């Protein structure tokens, strides 16, 4: 397993601190082969260093030094980046520049004003990322929040429609398996589904189960019928996984990069973590 690098995006909030200081979470990253972490924080374009009484860049650099020490103590090589601009664009830019294998961003859970929504940066990253994105869900509405799922990949719910996007997402088990114990393979038969009856779906699941078995992972099948996004979220509530693994549709002629409705709904409304795998940059 070759050494991987990850971009860990932080706004230096309490929620971000929780994510950075999660010993279990850092251990999970180590187990999947991450050796170098790039800590990134973005100073918004509308914040200027000359504003009276405000010096966000120095304050952020001090906080990043503290975070850097925590991550280095966990055994990672660490680089810090304090940049200015639009958060999701700068985070994506740094991920591309350093050749990151994944981006990790923390997100508060349920909002008191809206149905479970993720912050604008996490949402925009989900729509534009060209490398796998892990949305690490953090408790909301408490002064001292915890991560909602301590283990990032221990129990993974993998949603598949047997597309190339889903196959690409499944291939991440090549390294996720080192931090995974059990997998729930979920397929939703929608009214437009042409994957056949339940027996046909089970037959198509068999090669996936065999590969997971070769990797020493316990696997089970959950075949559902209905609206794909709603049923995937229902499966998450039923099986209580650490993370939902799903592939995104990729580029659209109408928008620079648009998630399929199913992926977008899952990222926005899942209770726990979501690991989103986009198409490769060249697609």
UniProtKB/TrEMBL annotation:
* CDD domains from the UniProt entry: USP-like (cd00293)
By its UniProt entry, which InterPro entries does this protein fall under? Rossmann-like_a/b/a_fold, Universal_stress_UspA, UspA
Q: In this protein, which residues make up the domain named UspA?
A: 35-135, 153-278
Family statement drawn from the similarity comment of this UniProt entry: Belongs to the universal stress protein A family.
Q: What is this protein called?
A: Universal stress protein
Source organism? Halorubrum tibetense
